[in-house]
Amino acid sequence: MPEIVIKNVSFSYAAQNARPALDDVSLRIAPGSFVGIVGHTGSGKSTLVSLIDGLGKPTSGQIQVGTVTVDAQSSPADLAQLRRHVGYVFQFPEQQLFAETVGQDIAFGPTNLGWSTDRVQAAVQEALKLVGLPAAFADRSPFALSGGQMRRAAIAGVLAMKPAILILDEPTAGLDAAATERLLTNVAQLHAAGTTILLITHQMDQVARYADQVVVMNQGHLVKSAPPREIFADPAFLAANHLNVPAAVAMSHQLRDAGVKIDPALSIDALADQLAAKLGGKHGEQ
Ligand SMILES: Nc1ncnc2c1ncn2[C@@H]1O[C@H](COP(=O)(O)OP(=O)(O)OP(=O)(O)O)[C@@H](O)[C@H]1O
């Protein structure tokens, strides 16, 4: 499983840009981590993950994924090497569905990797299972599915290539509560099976529930990389970085850390009571 090491990476979209999209970012992500990447709009989250996927090269600094290292001098072929390890689910991935059937769509990536027909077909079926779609959906038109099902079919196309690192850019945007829950459960299962997850989100409850490391971006800078308990425990830091963490989310995270299973239907008062009982009753004073 590859480690990700980002060393002093800066990136500008255009030389005349007053402010680089990424400014001297350094970060280490251990294999098998679940990383939540958060920050205000335009803070550099998508730019950061797109460089990890080799979609561009750093203006300065280095990105290492496993044994592959890229920098400002790297060739397109070097950048493509990064992609061997990484699957990138773009925002609204269903907009990229194009084939006549779901099966053909999912098969596109594995076929491009040069896999045999049998291996591709097995990967298609496995990917459908991973996202919880019935095997028979392989023969359906992707455009005859619900919005949530289309999203899952598109994600299956990325999973079929069996990436060791999975990037998800706001994967639940526009989904209802049930579809959100199903999708995040799938992602948690992939993580449990060893996949490194990089989740860009504005939903702090998703970070609280799943992430073991939170990367906070602000105006192209990486301002902090730490476990959620550290990030959520500092209201001044949260406010300074425009992170809206409802009290219930912060509390539910502390309870998760303390080993308590959270009932999502609990009111904030009930959560506060549980937290006080578990952690010694100090919470209400903060
Ligand atoms: N293709 C592009 N060309 C020029 N500038 C860009 C391009 N994409 C992003 N930027 C700029 O780079 C900066 C970082 O953008 P980025 O998309 O990485 O932020 P983000 O944190 O992912 O934002 P959001 O939460 O809105 O998706 C912003 O100032 C943005 O305007």
Automatic annotation (TrEMBL):
InterPro entries: AAA+_ATPase, ABC_transporter-like_ATP-bd, ABC_transporter-like_CS, ABC_transpr_CbiO/EcfA_su, ECF_ABC_transporter_ATP-bd, EcfA2, P-loop_NTPase. SMART domains: AAA. It comes from the Bacteria. Keywords: ATP-binding, Cell membrane, Membrane, Nucleotide-binding, Translocase, Transport. Forms a stable energy-coupling factor (ECF) transporter complex composed of 2 membrane-embedded substrate-binding proteins (S component), 2 ATP-binding proteins (A component) and 2 transmembrane proteins (T component). Belongs to the ABC transporter superfamily. Energy-coupling factor EcfA family. This is Energy-coupling factor transporter ATP-binding protein EcfA2. It comes from Limosilactobacillus pontis.
